[in-house]
Write a structure and sequence with these properties.
Keywords: Flavoprotein, FMN, Oxidoreductase. One of its GO terms (molecular function) is oxidoreductase activity. It comes from Nonomuraea longispora. This protein is an alpha/beta fold and 215 residues long. Helix content is 40%, strand content 19%. The chain has 7 helices and 7 strands; from the N terminus they run E-H-E-H-H-E-E-H-E-H-E-E-H-H.
């Protein structure tokens, strides 16, 4: 009997302070996704990329034209993962410059087809639409598959239960985590080794009708 599929989940967080509400939200989302997947029998390996620690490396990549070893390792954590949670603080109505710069140094085809949950933090709910007019278009351009529910946490969301018109933060986290877990569960697991090369004759044989006649 085969063991559980080993999923790789990458977390990119662009919080600048320590402690950071952005990192707190990222951890809360990661835990919710991990819990949902483990309930379904999936083993999960979670890797966190703290952009605050890579700020100089990211700037250097723009000047040098290529990432150094430490930044390259972080990029590989993201591009090789089965799924991604990307969380940024909102500055001036959009994602942070550090967040955008990190994804600028990643090849624009490296996230193609990857399930992504986008989230953000900010001081006021007025910035929540940045998820739709900034983050979602960014990952659509990168041809990632963004889950329907984006999670925004304003200062008043921490510890709040929502109101008659909106779900509380906990409900949004749970719903978004379920959507990402669902996409990951139906995504073919990555193989770290090179894919087996199928001989051309075998590929042709698979296309022939069952009676063996050429149409």
């Amino acid at each position: 009997m085969e063991g559980p599929t080993h999923m790789k989940l990458a977390i990119v967080t662009a919080g600048l302070t320590q402690p950071s509400s952005t990192r707190l939200l990222a951890d809360r989302l990661a835990e919710a996704v991990r819990r949902r997947l483990e309930e379904r029998g999936e083993a999960v390996d979670v890797r966190v990329v703290e952009l605050r620690e890579l700020a100089v490396d990211i700037a250097g990549a723009f000047v040098a034209g290529f990432p150094n070893a430490r930044l390259r390792t972080a990029i590989e954590e993201v591009t090789r993962a089965d799924g991604l949670i990307a969380v940024t603080p909102i500055f001036s109505g959009s994602y942070s410059g550090l967040f955008k710069s990190f994804f600028d140094v990643i090849d624009n085809a490296a996230l193609e087809g990857k399930p992504v949950l986008v989230a953000a933090t900010g001081g006021t709910v007025r910035h929540s639409l940045a998820l739709e007019h900034a983050l979602r278009p960014l990952f659509a351009y990168l041809r990632a598959v963004v889950v329907p529910t984006a999670v925004y946490a304003a200062s008043e969301d921490w510890g709040g239960g929502g109101d008659a018109f909106t779900d509380g933060l906990g409900a949004r986290v749970t719903r978004a985590a379920g959507e990402l877990a669902g996409l990951l569960e139906h995504r073919a697991p990555r193989r770290d080794d090179a894919e087996e090369v199928v001989p051309f004759e075998q590929q042709l044989a698979a296309l022939r009708p069952a009676d063996g006649k050429v149409r």
